[in-house]
Amino acid sequence: YYKYYNIFIKTYMEVKFMEKILCQSCGMPMEKLDQFGTNADGAPNNDYCVYCYKDGEFTKDVTMDGMIEVCLEYIDEFNKDSEKKMTVDEARIMMKEFFPTLKRWKK
Question: Nearest Cα to 94, choosing from 62, 63, 68, 60?
């Protein structure tokens, strides 16, 4: 595990300075190590957050539209930290455009 952790930290720090790391399933920004999901061997996963991916498997068996609906449940939390507040309908439209660019939902 320690070996994987060191490799992950190096990769994480290199990417962190280039761009924000987003979960490739739900789009959540991952800024702290405890926000990253885990692979089957316990190593951190660079692509998915802890809420979407654990022990090498997705935590929810959902479609892209299903994931969008799950994410919309947190719109108030998103709006709390955002300069521009979004309605549920505005957020849904934005997510339907953005989610197909994420690794899990690319066709």
Answer: 68
Stretch 42-51: mean pLDDT, rounded?
A: 94
Identify residue 40 by its one-letter amino acid code.
Answer: A
Q: Residue 64, CB half-sphere, CA atoms under 13 Å: how many?
A: 17
E runs forming strands in 1-99:
36-38, 44-49, 53-54, 57-58
Helix (H, G, I), strand (E, B) or coil at 23: coil
pLDDT digit string (tens) for 51-99? 999 999 999 999 999 999 999 999 998 888 788 898 999 999 999 999 9
Which of 59, 30, 58 has its CA nearest to residue 46?
A: 30
The CA angle 25-106-97, to the nearest 5 degrees, is 80
Nearest to 29 by CA among 78, 90, 88, 85: 78
pTM: 0.78
